Known about the structure:
With 327 residues, the chain is α/β, with parallel strands linked by helices. The chain is 36% helix and 11% strand. The protein has ten helices and ten strands. Helix 7 (240-256) crosses helix 8. The protein is globular, with a radius of gyration of 19 Å.
Amino acid sequence: xxxxxxxxxGAKVSPLCLGCxxxxxxxNEADSIxxxxxxxxxxxxxWDTADVYSKTxxxxxVGKALEGKRDEVFLATKxxxxxxxxxxxxxxxxxxxxxxxxxxLRRLNVDHIDLYQIHRPQSGVPIDETLxxxxxxIRQGKVRYIGTSTFSAYQLVESLWESEKxxxxxxxxxxxxxxxxxxRIERELxxxxxxxxxxxxxxxxxxxxxxxxxxxxxxxxPEGSRYQSGKFRSGEEVNDATWNVIxxxxxxxxxxxxxxxxxxLAWVMAQKTISSPIIGPKTMEQLEDxxxxxxxxxxxxDSKRVDGLIKPGTHVAEYYQADFGKR
Length: 327
């Protein structure tokens, strides 16, 4: 296993990150734990969850899977989303972050979190308040590193200014959407991350399953699948530009003798500045399919052919509800 540094930290993480969003809801507890242990046996030591996943139950199940294995895992979770009905049960305020961390530690049944991330930006809360709360958690030994998810480059620049100004621990990584249907982060975010030593942990590297090969142009998606209706999460119809890329990637993978999802994951892993794409298996079979990406090597010719399908820095559809900086 080729472990990679998480940005400038020196901490090493596995080249794939196990996303635990489905554990405790879509995937029952026993199957979730089996998947986590199988991933760990395969060398996937980086696990990512969040307090809001499966209505807090993901953290509970992850905590059970960690019993006797805590030191083997680089554990990440997130705070920001709504976890209750009270006015302060969400957001990036000091009040919510401190309580959110304590609650996550309890659910995970651990004494520290390796990477604690702000799940979304919130324009109504000054970033120095958020950073001060996170800095206190680090100094208390409850958190090792801090990061963000779905922040824009300008917001991260502002965070660095405030960290330097007040002598606070800085964010070390960002978790953005990135895949072969959406390469927008190549315009500003990835150059920023390279310049300032941020690790990059892409979510949705398979575009929510669109790059797995289970969807076909002109056909209804599999029963119960995310895009069964032929529409993206944004409400947009799956357009011809999207199908053109999907079919092109499928041919590229076939020419290489690889499964389509393994090729798409391997492409994300191979991009400059990427630390570890997040996979989100619901089943053991999906995990095994995802792990095949570790054996796929993306050549210069492969990269040129991908650029011919979708130009660097572009996207073909709003497949998710983009919310960069809107909160």
